[in-house]
Amino acid sequence: MKTSIATSLLLAGMCLSTSAIADKQAHWSYSGPGGPEHWGKLAKEFSTCSTGKNQSPVNLTGMIQGDLSEIKIDYKAGGHEIVNNGHTIQINYKPGSTISVDGHVFELKQFHFHSPSENMIKGHSYPMEAHFVHADQDGNLAVIAVMFNEEKANAGLEKIWAQIPEQAGNAQVLESMVDAGILLPPQREYYRFNGSLTTPPCSEGVWWLVMKQAETASKEQIKKFAHTMHHPNNRPIQAINARVIVE
Ligand SMILES: [Zn+2]
After folding, report:
1. I want to staple 78 with a disulfide (CB 3.0 to 4.6 A). Which of 94, 118, 122, 130 is the partner?
2. pTM of the predicted model, to two decimals?
3. Residue 70 C-alpha to ligand 1 middle, in angstroms?
4. Which residues neighbour 110 within 8 Å (Cβ) at sequence distance 6 or greater?
5. Architecture of 5-229 per CATH?
């Protein structure tokens, strides 16, 4: 039984300057010398970013018909803290919220956002994507991805965005606990494939579950996130290689 380094990093909020882990970590970013094309060389523990064959994000195309079972989602209102770690806005979650996929149980640890979207669906990019990061008892990760279209305002986001820390490295306790379920689309059909973390150390073996139905967010809500980040925070599309995407 082990908690993987990837999980520890995710839970620690990767680049908070107060974190002991961050001090030992190479600095990475979304452009320039620390940008995605250099991640694999920035540190030995990031090498999978360049050598991995099952990297995320991907363009989801050529789906194979499979008999995907329903994801059993049992979320409670457990989002208690909002963090601006300079790479994303992340909501940390208290224990007790789970998903079950093919009888395999994962606990929700945190969720965070990317703009524009990291994954693409049939060549289509979205203005924003949320990642709900879960871990099982052995440290295996499962990510539910939800795309956002620019349309009507999202009531769930409204509440979260009201407390976004403007400065990187800052965190705030949420005034009331957030239920991540409010950000999931009503229809739960999904695409499934094997992938990786989309940030260093790019660890593989991540179960990716991408919702087919997109949520909505207003132009202002997307702008607020993009403005807080000051830069796009999407890793470029990675080669699919031998993988298949099941629907
Ligand atoms: Zn992500």
Report:
1. 94
2. 0.91
3. 22
4. 10, 11, 90, 91, 92, 93, 133
5. Roll (3.10)
